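Appendix B.2, paired examples.
Example (i):
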Amino acid sequence: MRLRASLQLHEYIENRRVLPLERQDQHGYWALMNEILSYWNWFADSVKPHHEVITAISTVFLAVFTIVLARVAWKQNRDARIIQRAYLDVKFGGVRNNTDGNLVGHVTFKNVGHLPAQKFCCVVRLDSGSNDWKPPKIKNKDLQGESVIPIGAEWPKATGGIPRPEEIFKGLYLSVWGRATYKDGFRLRKRHTDFCHRYPWK
């Protein structure tokens, strides 16, 4: 009995020692919360007279941020289209004689893009003239065909034949020129590629 009473007394003393520490911690917690609350009330009272100004500034900031995000999205979309769209490259194949003895110009269209070139139309012509000669204006009605050039594919095209120049004078050139139109896979309107390559005639 004496041993049991002694243990109970020891437990009571230990509890009495711990209780003040717990109360001290709780007191420190509520003191910190009161300090934070006092600072918050001071901040709210300081901001309240300028509520409308802060709201206006915040609205402007959000509007600017929205515009910046829209600009970034537009640039990413534009860059993706530039990388992925169809591209037509024009390779010149020179001027050669055909079976009739006339001169014929040759070009090859190659799709070097990442999408098929749709509704492809072209006109390719061969003319002779001096160094000052310029290709005439091409009209849409002059374009021929409507095809699709797959990715990486080539499309050879020859001009109509012209007689060999009878008079040879210094500065005579043969010009292979024309236009190709196609849809790049994104734009509603067709893209066009104008070309002109000159070969000195000897």
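Example (ii):
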Amino acid sequence: MEEFRVGLENRCNREEVVGFLASIFGPDPKIARKNFNLVFDYEPSVSTRNMVYARSSKNQLVGMLRIVERTVLVDGAALNCGGVTSVAVAENWRHQGVCSALMDFAHKVLEDRGCPVSLVFARKAVDGLYERYGYSPVGRYIDLRLDVSVKDTTGVQLRPFQKKDLDFCMMSYIKYYHQLTGSYKREQGIWDFLIHRFAEGKRQFQLFVCQAEKRNIGYGVVLENTLVEFCLAPEFFSSCPSMFESLAIKSIGLHPRHPFFQYARAHWNTIFSERFAVHGGYMARFIHTPAVIRWVSQRLKSRAKRLGLQNHFVNVLDYRIDLKTGQVTPQQGKDDIIFSDFNHAVQMILGFVGPELISGAQINASKPWLLNLFPHLYFQTSKCDEF
């Protein structure tokens, strides 16, 4: 078995990297090359500090991955995450430990940076791969099929997005998405990348702006025939049937707690379906569990105050959390929630599910309020943000 080395490099040979990734991620290398050039031009996390390479003893590039810096919002609180993407190994170097070495190195980089959680988005073709590296599934895919015959006369107009609309869209996203668990906090650079991505994928993505009396009142993103992102004041929801007809929208793929998703289920005929990706899709891994517990302790402290539970404590994942102060200390006693599978612990901490929905979980019967302390927040990330 030929030796190889893994690490960061001071310089990035863009042509080498783009060519290598395009050869792996086809099936059409020309399209793949175009997509990766778009990433290099606009994705804000692209830098030498986020490129992990595997090279042979002859200095040949045989594998690589990228670290993508993102902030995920959980119940309105920011959680710094290190996404891992563009994981690629040359075909003749597979099954020789290259991928494991790349992932181990990336996890060490994230730990050194104080990043408590890592995320990956696994294509269906590699289902099961990232489970080997400690990732737990948090991928939920919602489809709400619409059967709407109602017409409206509210006077809402649609037009394609223009650059002058960016500030409005950024503010609207903050207003409507920052309380939806699983949403990303989008800085200017991420928005710029998304806008260029939408422009390059015209046949897939449509970014539109809603107007009333020539005033911007909302925006939306359509992927094929599905509404995947939407910001609009509730008083205009009744105007949506006509809008959707003009855009050939057939279904909604929004967060279950999105106000428009809830409106549609309450007012129109719909068919709801949900796919939970057990072995792929979005997946999460705790890089540093103590840091995760310290982060979640502040959320528990806030919830406990609202619920009147400040004089209690909770034991979880071998740590004791004082609900009055948020102080975290290691403990060797019995946890209040015992999981049969660590995947379930990751899902509960991130709000993907509540403890009452976890199969095989043993919950301390003397603390029934635990179900309210760890609510089901429906962790879901916008399709626009899949890296």
